Amino acid sequence: MTLRPILIHPDPRLKKVAAPVPDLSDELRVLADDMLETMYDAPGIGLAAPQIGVLKRLIVLDCVKEEGAAPRPLAMFNPEIVARSDETSTYEEGCLSIPEQYAEVTRPAEVEVAWIDRDGKARQEVFTGLWATCVQHEIDHLEGKLFIDYLKPLKRQMITRKMVKLKRERARAAG
Ligand code: NI
What's the domain range around 123? Predict the structure, then answer.
């Protein structure tokens, strides 16, 4: 498996709508495995393909946080939210493409998601709590939407300026 570099906002690829994945192939399974490894390494609880510059509808997540609990790596091809609760919940969100910036975002507390799994099987499940927030955040990436798009313009611009500076510093460090 290969760690893939994660794009940092602002990047035009993070603003694009990703294309549906046709039939599953070994190549796509390798991509999913690479994304999981990249996510765990970061470390993070979710990653969407556009974040590694691949404009395909694929996300990975694992929101198991309890220490010692078994991991639950999920790879979702063509994930789709088929139902949302009226009830909402607010979490402090972050994003591997927006390092070290966090802000509260309010989203439906429960969502039902349909997707194709790594074996090509159609799956459907209701997610709650952190899983619900995470899966919505990752599916947003497939629409070119970031969590900072939910914030007030001033706060969003402030974070974007910090990221521009971070990218400049990293580019300089890389020589
Ligand atoms: Ni993200």
Answer: 12-174
